[in-house]
Design brief:
Strand content of chain A: 15-25%
Radius of gyration of chain A: 16 Å
Strand order of the largest sheet of chain A: 2-1-3
CATH class of chain A: Alpha Beta
Structural class of chain B: alpha/beta
Helix content of chain B: 10-25%
Structural class of chain A: alpha+beta
Strand content of chain B: 25-35%
CATH topology of chain B: Rossmann fold
Helix content of chain A: 40-55%
CATH superfamily of chain B: Class I glutamine amidotransferase (GATase) domain
Number of domains of chain A: 1
Number of helices of chain B: 5
CATH class of chain B: Alpha Beta
CATH architecture of chain A: 2-Layer Sandwich
CATH topology of chain A: Mth169, Chain: A
Order of helices and strands of chain A: EHEHEH
Largest sheet of chain A: 3 strands, antiparallel
GO molecular function, one term (chain B): glutaminase activity
Strand order of the largest sheet of chain B: 2-1-3-4-11-10-9-6-7
Radius of gyration of chain B: 15 Å
CATH architecture of chain B: 3-Layer(aba) Sandwich
Subunit structure (chain B): Part of the FGAM synthase complex composed of 1 PurL, 1 PurQ and 2 PurS subunits.
Distance between the termini of chain A: 21 Å
Largest interface: A-B, 13 and 20 residues
Order of helices and strands of chain B: EHEEHEHEEEEHEEEH
Number of strands of chain B: 11
Shape of chain B: globular
Main location (chain B): cytoplasm
Largest sheet of chain B: 9 strands, mixed
Organism (chain B): Nocardioides bruguierae
Distance between the termini of chain B: 13 Å
Oligomer: heterodimer
Protein name (chain B): Phosphoribosylformylglycinamidine synthase subunit PurQ
Chain lengths: ~90, ~220
């Protein structure tokens, strides 16, 4: 079944203490060269089928519940099952 | 006056809030998150805690609890509503108050006696204080950083809607040291620190928080 992915990220102008903490931890673990880390959330919504109406509904869900538009931006995209599995195994 | 206290799954401070309301001279009425009516109360307190485990975002799930439909409608009609800590987060998620509360800039949970300045003493919750009064009450939060865009912050300052500001230290990275704000009408107040923990000499930092629970009585008496 198709999966619609909603990515939620803190707005660029909003401080992201969690991302900052991760960024601070990387050099301590010997990972160099990362100048910024932003931490967000990813939602995977399994739907019956992907139609314009479904995508509009998901955008509404993202705006109403999944994100807080005051501090976060979101994107909606369709991902195939094989991509999800590949991502999980990578 | 009858003051409702809403309990959500994960609320911590409902009993302290109810006690503070009684010490303030009012009747505390328990409201359940699943309730569809406000039992005829004259005001509502959304107490602190971790409603719905803070899942998704603090206050994000609570906002859609059945009782909140009633609280939002009543607040828009002028009912005095005070949100403390998690209650403040719920009011922001409900869009009754502007801005949002994010994780403390230093990433740690903070628990301390916090000095504040009351900057708006004309709300139903702060009228017992004088403008500019300095009080010390408990602060305890992990996600208490008040944020809003510059235009919103400027508007809040210009309209006198900053109810309280942190003194001495900014404990959580809140923009412009903001500890509490009110809505345009002035009946809805959100406050990150906990006045309900400062109502008796026996415990806590003193009785500086009591004014939040007696203001209402004074205002009612003066009507």
């Amino acid at each position: 079944m198709p999966v619609v992915v909603v990515d939620v990220m803190p707005k660029p102008e909003i401080l992201d203490p969690q991302g900052k903490a991760v960024q601070g931890a990387l050099p301590r673990l010997g990972f160099a060269g990362v100048s910024d880390v932003r931490q967000g959330k990813r939602f995977e919504l399994t739907v019956e089928e992907v139609t314009d109406e479904v995508l509009a509904q998901v955008a509404k869900m993202a705006e109403t519940l999944l994100s807080n538009p005051v501090i976060e931006n979101f994107t909606v995209r369709v991902e195939t099952t094989s991509e999800i599995v590949a991502g999980a195994n990578a | 006056m009858k003051v409702g206290v809403v309990t959500f799954p994960g609320t911590l401070d409902d009993v302290d809030a109810a006690r503070a309301i009684r010490i303030g001279g009012h009747e505390a009425v328990s409201l359940w998150h699943g309730d569809h009516d406000l039992k005829g109360v004259d005001a509502v307190v959304l107490p602190g805690g971790f409603s719905y485990g803070d899942y998704l975002r603090c206050g994000a799930i609570s906002r859609f609890a059945p009782v909140m439909t009633e609280v939002v409608a009543a607040a828009n009609g002028g009912l005095p509503v005070l949100g403390i800590c998690n209650g403040f987060q719920i009011l922001c998620e409900s869009h009754l108050l502007p801005g949002a509360l994010i994780r403390n800039d230093h990433m740690k949970f903070v628990c301390r006696d916090q000095r504040l300045r009351i900057e708006n003493a004309s709300t139903p919750w702060t009228s017992a204080y004088s403008h500019g009064a300095e009080i010390t009450i408990a602060l305890k939060n992990g996600e208490g950083g008040f944020v809003a865009d510059e235009a919103t912050l400027d508007m809040l300052e210009a309209e006198g809607r900053v109810v309280a500001r942190y003194l001495d230290v900014n404990p959580n990275g809140s923009m412009r040291d903001i500890a509490g704000v009110t809505n345009e009408r002035g009946n809805v107040v959100g406050l990150m620190p906990h006045p309900e923990h400062a109502v008796e000499e026996l415990t806590g930092s003193g009785t500086d928080g009591l004014g939040f629970f007696t203001s209402f009585l004074e205002q009612a008496a003066s009507v």
